[in-house]
Amino acid sequence: MAQELEWPVQAKKSWAGQFRVLLAGVLVLGGLAYLVMASLPQGTVYYQTVKELKAKPASAQPVRVAGIVASGSVQRASAPSRLSFDILDGSDRLPVTYSGVVPDIFGPGVQVVVEGQRDASGVFQAQTLLAKCPSRFAAVVPTPGGASQP
Amino acid sequence: MIVAQFSDIGYVALLAALLVSAYSAVAAIVGRRVPALLTSAYRGVIAVASLVTLAALVLWLSLLNHDFGLRFVAETSSRSMDTLALLSAFWGGQEGSLLFWATMQALLMVLVLWKHRAQYPHLMPVIVAVLLSVQTFFLFVLTMVSNPFERVPLAPGDGRGLNPLLLDAGMRIHPPLLLTGYMSFSVPFAFAIAALVTGDLGRSWLKALRGWVLLSWAIQGAGLLMGAWWAYHVLGWGGYWGWDPVENAALLPWLIATALLHSIMVQERRGMLKVWNLGLAIGAFVLAVFGTFVVRSGVISSVHSFSLSVIGPYFFAFLTIVVLGAAGLLIYRLPSLKAEGHFDALLSREAGFLANNWLLLAVAGATFWGTIFPLLSEAIQGTKVAIGPQFYKQVNGPIFLGLIVLMGIGPLLAWRRTSRPSLLHNFTWPVVAAVAVTLALLALLGFATAGAAIAYGACTFVLGAIALEFARGVRTRKRAGSGPLRALRSLVAANRRRYGGYIVHLGIVAVAFGVIGSSFFQQTADIQLRPGESYTIGRYKVTYSGLSSYREPGVDAVAAALRVEGGNTSTLQLQAEKRVYTNWEQQPVTGVAIGTTFPWLDDVYILLTDSSTSGAAQVASFRIFINPLVSLIWFGGLLLLAGTVVAVWPHGLAVRRALPTTVPVPGGSLADA
Question: Of the candidates B75, B93, B389, which has its C-beta nearest A149's C-beta?
Fold first, then answer.
């Protein structure tokens, strides 16, 4: 409302203005590139097969492993509530423990993706448990483990 | 012996629509020289819309009649579902979703033709041809690849039904809204192509384009918010947005549309950014088709795990044709797309809009990159990766902060150049308020949450700038002799686009308050309680009183009664449930207990994770979240819609006139949004 035009509007190009706008653009692009490059490593989680995981020593770097929950392997312990089960990836078997909210469709025979680390004893400590229902259309519930994502 | 089935009417209607649509698309182009053909093409639009609507009605009736001989009906519905659930099973699978997309697009085509036929006689043939080509592609997919009317040899006695997670009010509204939003981006796209093909690159159609972009933006925005609301209230993981590929794909066209809504004003006023705007209109449509495809194809592994399907190559081919064709046209017309004006200064309205566009595109670019990175990584390096929410938070968080600050600055800058006195006049108080809020929050909450303090400071700045605008406007009108409320009303009515925009900005700030609050200050606890025991989290005491169970048709439910006290608020009675759907493989569904406290606006969000009904103990496990300010997100969503309605209210649009760029406008921003 209250802006005034102090300067007479010039018909010719103001190179200084153009240059500043361009410079701002370059800064924005550079900043974005830096942000992406700096954030990609923290945001990236690698998928590994059970075989690949077992071939490597225990590491603190979280990875994702996919498999099918082996029937008869699911055990729930309360206080503190803890879930343990084995996942099958072909003929490879991986014991997993998890505490947190269990997806509603979790159960034996369900395809799951676990995210976490394998400890020294060979048990996979999952912080996240995702369940998939591959046979049909279904929304699947993510359950972030620790401090969760809003 | 072949027996014709009722559902065959649907398939025949789709086939007929495909033929009419393909014919009319060609006729419309040829009709630019042969008027008789043009008339037949326009009639073809009506015919296609009628035929596709007929097909949709047939599918709905087949769902209602439990025609399980149809594979689609058998897979998405069952006898135990009520009428509303059966109706929404329409978009419970890929085939129905695509049919819904096509139906809505066909109806929209009729609307566009009816509204603009007389207004833009020279553009209309191309607009219709483009819309019909898009329609033809979807009809091709629907009849040849992903047929909703496919029959199975032996009809099962009952269908599989819809996943109980989807049997919810939010799920009834959210998918059709998003599908409608996606398809509506075809209209701005058609306008852009029509402008490029006809060479009418003036500003005659800019207003219409802006109107359609605003419509798409509003529908898509409402769809996104409904999706967030559903995730928060039904999925039960304590959040509303997970940066999941499907969510990202829906966000992308909305971000581009947001950019376009702003940059289009620069073209209206200064005749600049012409190529940019056409590119955005095209890009939004490409991303909308990409979104439709990602949702329904399973190409990117997502929590919305739709089964992998065969439609991928067709969508890829379609997108390639669209991108190459549009880019070719743009390059061909490049010489006639020269800007009429140029940037004079960094502190000008047009530079503000440009910065807004850069940041919005930066968010879109980073989000797109994160979404397709797993695909690229697997294709090129052979390593399977997942990009987590952390990536998006770190990249998009700071950019969003920049956008919020710009939202306060931009509307108060003058076109061409802003003078120093005007800067001081407009920004002194908002900046003082922002700094004060930031410092106060730093003192109160410490440096660990400095990000939140800065972000809330930025929000305060925007609120201050908008409040100052309203206050000054009202004061001027009050001086003219009307009361404050009346002054406010006449102020808004005199310039609906501008004040509608401010209301939208207020809505965005409300959403930002909620997002910042819940991102920085969420508290979580996993606990186990016996009846009568309590747990204290934050300023609240949560007491568990006991379990009860009840039964509904198809549902066995266990409910835990909870009481929330503390924080100087009235006591909340909540009920966290675990419902087992006996018709759907005994799948349990969490019934989240959510209570909002006043005046703190904390959501106390409780999940019943485990319970033992056997024995008298009734021990139950809970996960408790304290999610501050989340209700402001839903409130902000309502403000967004309200602001949009104010902005498009017909009277306000009629008053506006585009101003010639060569004439400097004294008084700066009076007439623009």
Answer: B389
User: What is the Cα–Cα distance from B302 to B319, expressed in whole angstroms?
Assistant: 21
* Encoded amino acid at A109, one letter: G
pLDDT per 10-residue tile (average), chain A, 150 residues: 40 67 83 85 84 82 88 77 86 88 79 88 88 46 34
User: Among B597, B561, B598, which Cα is nearest to B576's?
Assistant: B561
List the single residue in A with minimal CA-CA distance to B622: A101
The DSSP output letter for B299 is -
Beta carbons of B252 and B217 less than 8 angstroms apart: no
Task: Annotate B462-496 with DSSP letters as a single string.
Answer: HHHHHHHHHHHHHHHHHHTT--HHHHHHHHHHHTH
d(CA B72, CA B63): 9
Q: What is the DSSP letter of A86?
A: E
CA dist B414 and B672 (Å) reads 10
Gap between the Cα atoms of B127 and B140, Å rounded: 20
Alpha-carbon distance of B68 to B79, in angstroms, equals: 10
Rounded to 5 degrees, what are φ and ψ at B244? -80, 150
- The residue with tokens 């996960």 is B623
Is residue A93 packed enough to be buried (19+ CB in 10 Å), middle (13-18) or exposed (0-12)?
middle
Sign of the four-CA dihedral B233, B235, B236, B237: negative
DSSP state of B34: -
- Helix or strand or coil: residue A47? strand
Q: What single DSSP character describes residue B660?
A: P
Report the distance separating Cα B609 and Cα B560, nearest Å. Answer: 11
- Tell me the C-alpha distance between B296 and B282, whole Å: 22
Question: Which residue in the set B344, B391, B422 is minimally distant from A40, CB to CB?
Answer: B391
Contacts of B623 in chain A (CB under 8 A): 100-101
Tell whether B584 is within 8 A of chain A (Cβ): no
The DSSP element (H or E) to which B498 belongs, if any, is helix B496-521
Q: Which of B498, B463, B506, B504 is nearest to B669 (CA)?
A: B498
Interface contact A75, partner B, CB < 8 A: no
Task: Say if CB B465 and CB B481 are below 8 A apart.
Answer: no
| Beta-carbon count within 10 A of B662 CB | 11
Q: Are A139 and B242 in contact (CB under 8 A)?
A: no
At B498-525, the pLDDT tens digits run 999 999 999 999 999 999 999 999 999 9
pTM score: 0.89
Whole-number Cα distances in Å, B452 to B87, B449, B510, B594 = 44, 5, 14, 24
Backbone region of residue B586 per phi and psi (left: phi > 0; alpha: psi in -120 to 50; beta: other values): left
- Residue B394 φ then ψ, to 5°: -70, -35
User: What's the complex ipTM?
Assistant: 0.73
